[in-house]
Specification:
Blueprint: H1 8-15, H2 46-54, H3 75-87, H4 93-103, H5 107-128
Length: 129
């Protein structure tokens, strides 16, 4: 099969806004840029595909972003967080620092817990109506 004037490389570059030249003209590429893979399609090896299928993930499964694992709060931590939430739904910087030190958690974990707890509260009050 003949490639013709609109090659896959040219189409991929033009979809990224890089190729404004006429088809057939070559333009230098930055090192490491893909030749044939369009930017919206992640490259997945057959081995990775097989492993995902064995694990029960379909082709369109969304995996968790890499990062720290989910925090498991102790009962004592939850009691203190809930007590603080009952007093005030939005936590201030000083209270956040105090809770983080007292509960041995990061300020970011405290902030995220309060955000999640406000959303849970919102769902509960909407369901009650």
């Amino acid at each position: 099969m003949d490639k013709g004037p609109f090659s896959v490389e040219w189409l991929a570059q033009s979809s990224r806004g890089g190729a404004r030249d006429l088809p057939g003209e070559s333009r230098p590429r930055p090192p490491g840029s893909p030749l044939l893979t369009p930017p919206s399609v992640p490259a997945e090896s057959p081995r990775e595909r097989e492993a995902a299928e064995r694990a029960g993930h379909g082709a369109g499964a969304v995996e968790a972003a890499p990062g720290r694992p989910r925090t498991k709060f102790s009962a004592a931590q939850l009691r203190e967080l809930e007590r603080s939430f009952r007093e005030q739904r939005y936590i201030g910087a000083g209270e956040k620092r105090r809770l983080a030190a007292a509960l041995n958690l990061s300020q970011s974990q405290i902030k995220t817990w309060f955000q999640n707890r406000r959303m849970k509260f919102k769902r509960q009050t909407q369901d009650a109506r």
